[in-house]
Structure formats: C-alpha cells, structure tokens
Amino acid sequence: MKWGVIGAGGIADRRAIPALMKDSENKLVAIYDRTFSVAEKLGKKYSVPFFSNAETMLKSADCDAVYIATPVFCHKTDSLLALSYGKHVLLEKPVALNAKDGAEIVDAFVKAGKFVSVGYMLRFHNLHVKAREIISSGGIGKVNGIRIRFSCWYPRIENAWRQNKEQGGGGVIMDLGVHCLDLAEQLLGEEITLVESFYATQTFDYEVEDGAVIIFKTQSGVLGHIDVNFNVPDNASESKLEIYGDGGYVICNGTLGQEETGELLFLRAPQDGYSAIQNRTTDAPQKFSADGGNLYLKQFRDFAANASAEKHDYFFADRTVRIQRLVDKIYAEK
Ligand SMILES: NC(=O)c1ccc[n+]([C@@H]2O[C@H](COP(=O)([O-])OP(=O)(O)OC[C@H]3O[C@@H](n4cnc5c(N)ncnc54)[C@H](O)[C@@H]3O)[C@@H](O)[C@H]2O)c1
Description:
Layout: E1 2-6, H1 10-22, E2 27-32, H2 36-46, E3 50-51, H3 54-60, E4 65-68, H4 75-84, E5 88-91, H5 99-112, E6 116-118, H6 126-136, E7 143-151, H7 165-168, H8 172-188, E8 192-200, E9 211-218, E10 223-229, E11 240-245, E12 248-253, E13 263-268, E14 286-289, H9 295-308, H10 315-332
Parallel strand pairs: 1-2, 1-4, 2-3, 4-5, 5-6, 7-10
Antiparallel strand pairs: 7-11, 8-9, 9-10, 11-12, 12-13, 13-14
Helix pairs in contact: 4-5, 5-10, 6-8, 8-10
C-alpha cells in the first residue's frame, strides 16, 4: 500500500514513518505538514516529495492511503479531506474531539466504501494478544476485575495543543486514558457499559487534567479501574495491567508504551474449598516475554491487509467512537 502522511510531527517522525520505511509491503510516497520547514526536513530525511498544502499532496501524490497524525482538533477535517480524494485513512488516536465528530468520520468512510481505522497500536502487542488468548480460553476462569496503570511526565510546554482543552479535547484521559479503555475492551472481548471518573490538575498549571482515576463496568459485570497520569516522572512510570478471574490472573508489566517490551505473568490457580489460612500459592506463574517487534509496523500491515482485501471491517473504528462516548460522559460530569 502506498502512503501519504498528513502531520509529520512527533509520533509520525519518531515511530510511524520509520516503521513504514522498514516495510516491504508498505511504502511512504509523500509527506505533508502545515509547517514548511517540518515538511521539508522530513521529506529530505525520508527522500520523498514534501508538501505544505494537504490538497496539493492529495491531488498529486500517487497514494492509496493516508496516515494522519495531526493534533486531535484537526482529525475530522483532515480525515474527511483525505476521503474526498478517495483515500483510506489510518487516523491517530483518539478518533476526534468528541464522539459526534468521531461518528461523522466513521459514517462518511462507511458510506464511501473506504477503510478507516484508529491508531490504538497497543492491541498489536504480542503480550496483549497472548493475554486475550488466555482470557478467551478460560485460562483465568471467569474474569471479575481489571486494573490498568499508565503514566508519563508531561510538564507545561508553551503552545502545546495537548495542554489546551479546545485543541486536545481534554488532558491525560484523552491521551492515555483512551488507550486503556480501548485495551480493556480488547482484552476482555466485551463492551464497557458504565464509566465514572475523578480527575484533577494536580501538578502542572495547564488547563487540562494531569491525573485521573477511571472506574468502569462491562456488559458481563467485570469491574475495571484505570489510573492515568501526566505527573509521574518517566523513571517512576511503571506501567501495569492486571486481570483477575476466579481461576487465576494475567499480569502484564511494562507493556504500555511505544515499544513492544515487558513481560506477562500467567497464574492458573483455581480453588475448590474455603481455606481460613488463606495461604498464597507457592506455584510460580508462567512467564512470557515481549517479542520486541514494532507495534506501528504491525498496525500498518493489519490496516493494509484489511484495506486491500476490500473486506473493510469497521469494528475497531466503531469501538473508538464508543470509547469517545465514554470519555464525553466523563468530561460532561465535571
Ligand atoms: N499512538 C501513539 O503511540 C501516539 C503517540 C503520540 C501521539 N499520538 C497521536 O498522534 C497525533 C499527533 O500527535 P504528536 O504528538 O505527533 O503531535 P505533534 O504536535 O508532535 O505533531 C503534530 C503535527 O501536525 C502538524 N499540524 C498540522 N495542522 C496543524 C494545526 N492546525 N495545528 C497544529 N499543528 C498542526 C504540526 O505541524 C505537527 O508537525 C495525536 O492525535 C496524538 O494523540 C499517538
């Protein structure tokens, strides 16, 4: 699949474009950024034509699909623009500023028969795939709870769109929380139906939240808890994902991030009778390691396979709109 890029900033240059460049099945053919110097720098770096006008790129570049990594407030305009030129779109997360805009994007692609998906690349992590396999095969019995902790250090940066409510749609919930909600549905294989949250700006002086606790319940009654923070130093940010059932646990340490790292611990420990001593098992959990692959490359390959086969599956795109509805509800209740 031949790709154009709209928004050649942080994640595009750091992860997505290098992943495309490595792949024999996908090819980067053009780059657009509204800032000419950024477009020029990346165009030269990756030896492809560069543009500072998106329509000129869409008119002249021979691309089948567009990867969009602009700020959240640009997602709707940019994806509908790419669609108007008949392109499939892989849009960075979150889908849009709110669920209404997200639904408009997905509906427009469905109507036009072009494929759209959203960049929740954590679902491609080999240990998250493994966790889903264990859970769906009943490895930990009936699941009753999930906890996710995901954080980083994100201090004030002048004019940062992510720190501006109108441009980013919110703070750490819009940035890290959405990943966790998406991943929870992926791992549990069911929808989140109820959500509540406490959130605050605790450490920094920007207008969006830098810390949040989200609690939720799924269709079947699994209870979930998410902690997301912009105010935990990177060196202290231990990502953790724990899923408990009535027959054991799956725990992923260090799997939430831009690289396929970390480990998965799986303990199968069904229990029959009551034991007042409540001794912990001495059985060691089974340990699985990360493959060290490239999450963004896996995502491009999955997208290209889906889009080229013309068996467009909008399940994930629909899910991102549903996730956005949960986030809208959280912010509406402040
Ligand atoms: N999946 C992931 O791992 C991941 C990681 C980081 C960011 N993201 C997502 O990628 C998107 C981009 O994030 P980023 O961190 O790369 O942002 P960034 O600010 O580093 O880059 C955004 C780029 O878009 C360009 N741009 C185009 N139109 C613009 C406009 N009207 N205003 C401002 N900039 C404009 C900027 O020039 C810039 O080069 C966001 O949706 C973000 O949530 C995803």
